[in-house]
Every structure is written in structure tokens, then in C-alpha cells.
Amino acid sequence: MSFLRLLLDVKLIRLLRVRWSGQLVDGIFQSALASFVLFSPERQASAVNAAVAFAVVLLPYSIVGPFVGTLLDRFSRQRAIFFANLTRAITLGIIAFLIFNGYTGLEITFFVLVAFGVNRLILAGLSAGIPLMTTPHSLISANALAVTGGSVWVVLGGGIGLGIRRLLSALESADHADALIVLVAAFGYLASAMLAALMRRDEIGPLPHEVVKASLTQGLREMRDGFKFLKNHADAARGITATALHRGGITALTLAALLLERNTFNNPTDSQAGLAGLSLTLSIAAVGFVIGAVIAPFGVTRVGRHRWMRLTMAAASVSALLLVIERSPVLLAATAFSTALFGQSIKVTNDALVQSKIDDVFRGRVFAVYDVVVNFTIVTGALIAAWVLPISGDSWALPLLVSVVWALAAIILLRPKKFFFKGVS
């Protein structure tokens, strides 16, 4: 099934509009946070500050992850997504109030933790619901459309947030402008909640006969069940690990890009130029995401999903070496494009691989494990980058380290003797 036919599939579009509208708003919100935390003229950007920001964003889901699987497999995912979006809207309203009134400490951090915690629940629930909204043979294309389209909408949202900030910068202080952007995002999440409300209660699962009464205190046991399920499906487990390692490497390179744009390629005192440069780099990466998702179904059809993941992981390893040669705007853009392209091919192919192995009764739990593993590697990648990178971001050691990790993943983790299915490697 082509991407065009999927876009005309009314059933799938009902899910995608909830996901994409929320991710558009994610981009707006994240642009305001990046501006407030990392590109404010009053605050110095460093690798450590950036790593802490990544950890704050991802810590919530790593904590609530064991309980999310229980929610997604035992209760209506549509209801969970609706109330999570309402929670995000309220939380962002509070964050906007705090920023506008000059709060910069633990108060904001707490509500940011809440906002991103429920955000991960939403994405996990929507991913778990995709198989119920399309046919099995369209899973790779549907995942490519959902995940890549979401990435594009995040980047577009970031551009919208940057545009709003430029309009407001002449009228308000930097922090007041960021607060108003966060308030815009709050209304955006409210709109996403309304779109979720238009879906039927059981439309994205779990199916009525699979709903079992359970207490959320069973969350840790449910998480263990997810790990046990993956233990019996080694290729899915290896695919998740490889995807997580790639995401961790992407995070490390993103921190390098942030510091290069903030402190090396632009005057450190001109935070607007640094933010614009980073936005351009991320936009180029978004183009790579789109192309990577588009070519994934063709690559899988030609060589098989397992071999395709090996090849794209190896290609990502080679592309990361561009920044070892020289740290320049051109090579940074080339690295952003190529690593995003190969990484997105890995992600959408693996999502379909995992979904094809899992009955719906287990899907929420396994995707909760999936997200927790990915988040762990992202935080780890950020912390390693903070340790390796100078404040300028100008380092050949970090991209070399990322390249080596990805190469080892392709050669060892995804080797044919271990990563295969029915003789197709």
C-alpha cells in the first residue's frame, strides 16, 4: 500500500491527526524550552546544561514506564490519550505562568517533568494502536508515515515557535516571549485532546475481549512480562537495542550540533543566530527522516527487514565519520541529513518488526519497554557527550565514538547468525 493510499485511509488518519497535531505542538513547546534554557542571553550554554535538559525531558517516562504498559493494555488507550493531552494543556499553562513571572528553578522543572511524562504515554499508546488501524502488510509503511510525519511536524512546530519568538522579541523580554509561546502550545495540546475525543473508546485498543481488570500496582510485573516476551523473540529484542543505540548516538551528535551552532559557528552573544542555525540543521535532518522512511519499505522488500537494518546501521556508522574529518556547517548539515536518513530507516523497520511479533494483549507492555530502553540510551548518550565535548562543541572524539558504537551494533548485535527470521537475513 502506497503512502498516498495510507493518507486516504480515513481510519488511519483518525490516529495520525492526534499524533501529528500533538507533535506539532511538541515542536512549539520544545523550541520555547530550548530558547529559555539553552539560548537565553542571560544563561550560558554548556554540554552539561544540555545533558541535564535532556535528562529532565526523558526522566519522567523512565520512571513511569513500568506502569504505562498496564494502562495501555488494560484500559482504553483513547481515554488515556485524551486525558494525557488535557494534563499537558493544564501543565503548560502553569509553566507559562511561572516563566512569565520570573521563576527559573525547581518549580518549572517539576511541571516540565509532568508534561514530558504524559507525552511519552501518548506516543506509546498511539504506536501500540497502529496495528489496529491498518493491515498487517502495511505496517512498515504505516509506521514510516506515523513516525516520520511526526518528526517533520515536530520540526515545523519548532520553526513556528522560532517565528513567534522573533515576532514577540521586539515587544517583550526574552523570558516573556518564551512564556507566551508555551501558552500557545497549551492551547495546541487542548486541540489534540479534542481530536482524541473524536475517536471511539476502543478504536485503538485494547479490544473488548482483551481488557482485564488490573491494578496499576502490577506495573513492575507487567514490565517484567514485556522483557520476558522479548526474551523469547530475540530478533525483536536485538532490533530494539540497535534502535536505542542509534538514538543515543543521535542525541550525542545533537548536543555537539547545539554547542557548535551556539558557541563556534555563531557569536556566543548572538543567541538568536545560534538558535536559527540549530533550527536549520534540524530541518535538514527532518528531510533525511522523510527520505529514510520512504525508502525503508523498498529496501525491506528487496533485501529483507533484518538485512536492511544491518545495512542502514553500517551506513549510519560511516556517515558519522564526516564530523571526524572537520567540524564545519557544511559537514554538520551532511551528517545531520545522513544519520537521520539511515536512523529513520532503522526505526520504522524495527517498529514493524516488533509489532508483527506481538499480540495486542502484550503490545502496550512491550512498547513501554521499548521506550524505556530508548530513553535510557538517549540520556546515556547525552551524559557521555557532556563528558567528551568542550564548551565549543568542536571535538572529533565524540563522532568517532558514535561511529564505532554503531559499527559494532551492525557487526555484532545484528549479525546474521543471531538476527534473522525464517532464513531471511
Overview of this structure, please?
The protein is an all-alpha fold and 425 residues long. It has a single domain (3-208, 218-413), classed as Growth Hormone, Chain: A (Up-down Bundle), CATH 1.20.1250.20. Helix content is 79%, strand content 0%. It has 15 helices and no strands. The longest helix has 33 residues, at 271-303. The protein is globular. The relative contact order is 0.16. The model has no long low-confidence stretch (mean pLDDT 84).
Keywords:
425 residues; mainly alpha; Growth Hormone, Chain: A; 79% helix; globular
Radius of gyration: 21 Å
In CATH terms, what is the fold-level topology? Growth Hormone, Chain: A
Class per helix and strand makeup? mainly alpha
CATH architecture field: Up-down Bundle
Total tally of structural domains: 1
Mean pLDDT: 84
Q: In whole angstroms, how far apart are the ends?
A: 23 Å
Q: Largest sheet at a glance?
A: none
Fraction of residues in helix: over 70%
Spans of at least 5 consecutive residues whose pLDDT stays below 50 are: none
**Outline type:** globular
- Element order: H for helix, E for strand: HHHHHHHHHHHHHHH
Strand content bin: under 5%
